[in-house]
Specification:
2 copies of one chain form a homodimer.
Chain A lengths: L3 E4 L18 E6 L1 H4 L3 E7 L5 E3 L20 E8 L7 E2 L1 H5 L10 E5 L17 E2 L1 H9 L4 E4 L9 H10 L3 E4 L10 E5 L10 E3 L3 E4 L1
Helix pairs in contact in A: 3-4
């Protein structure tokens, strides 16, 4: 059966949008077809560049790196939670409880606020909507497997606490997803990090496979 | 139904094996948990580092970059071709014709020679087995979709000609696959490049999804 695949990743290019204070991304010519018969580029970027995965090692000392996350966790049935929010909006426990039946152990939940439309615009990184600490605690209590968001981060007010609550519960976080607005309520998610040994994060080519 | 996923990628780390003359890979601390509450690294690497995809732009002027490759091409049923070869071995047209029925338009074919066991050892990049030009022409005639290999390159004697023949026929090349020896004859391949705009290659987390 032919599948339709929706790209859930933002593009990466020289100077593409980066979290303030992160290394940023640069792309430089290394070999060219004219001179060397083939074209190769040199990339410089941070582990949290663009659409990416946070491993527990991002916030937890001794936490797992991206290469230790089981691939089975990052491939399979995913559920979209449509929670429209704009600049500075908050998502609380009650907002998530509207999707009570989907807050299951191991669930892959992707929150679509619509904020990905602000990608590349002023305030995308620091002024987006986010989960409050109580909402994060609910997801941790339910032991969900993956939390994906279309914002640059699920946390704003209390970034460290929200990440700690989620990561201590084993939740894998995918940040900066694109195109969730094009997705059906359920699909197969693929979001494999590169196999960086022990590292705190990795850009991913996240995708929604729709049958 | 639970799936089993086999990682087809080699690990990436500071100084991990790189094609001679390529940029190589370095990993540097950027933020630390102790100092900054979270850990972030800066990566420097080439577009053909580790297990990776060659886009047509690698060898063809005006060729498609990795971001233009349809994701549907890089997800789906794949077939393993077991053709054991050692140092300097050659794969010719007759070797591929043993798998005649699988040399179909759009097919995802992964050649397992066993050379991936030499990864990290002397000669891995420049002394591996490869396809000869006539074998490449056969795959081009058959219009296969993806050619994956466990060597660092499918081509040695005539790298430019082999890449041109394959790329002009629209074949996407995946190089440096690991663990093909653990795979069944057929499985679902995932090998999505990062969404680098217009670039000639991208590291990938290739994986075999086995039902």
């Amino acid at each position: 059966m032919p599948v339709r695949i929706i790209d859930l990743s933002h593009p990466l290019y020289d100077g593409s949008p980066s979290w303030p204070g992160d290394p940023g991304i640069s792309v430089a010519e290394h070999c060219t077809i004219e001179r060397d018969t083939c074209c190769v580029h040199r990339l410089s970027l941070g582990t949290h560049q663009g659409t990416h995965i946070d491993a527990p090692a991002h916030y937890l000392k001794g936490g797992a790196g991206v290469d230790s996350l089981p691939l089975e966790r990052l491939y399979g049935k995913a559920r979209l939670l449509r929670i429209p929010r704009g600049r500075g909006g908050r998502i609380g426990r009650a907002d998530l409880l509207r999707f009570d039946e989907h807050l299951q152990e191991g669930a892959r939940l992707l929150v679509h606020t619509g904020w990905d439309e602000q990608w590349g615009k002023e305030g995308f990184f620091l002024e987006g909507p986010c989960l409050d600490l109580d909402a994060a605690k609910l997801l941790a209590e339910r032991k969900i497997g993956v939390l994906g968001v279309d914002m640059a981060t699920p946390a704003a007010d209390d970034a460290e606490a929200v990440h700690h609550v989620l990561m201590n519960a084993g939740v894998i976080i995918v940040e900066g997803l694109a195109n969730l607005g094009l997705c059906p309520d359920e699909f197969t998610l693929v979001a494999f990090p590169l196999r960086f040994e022990g590292l705190d994060g990795s850009p991913v080519r996240a995708a929604a496979i729709c049958q």
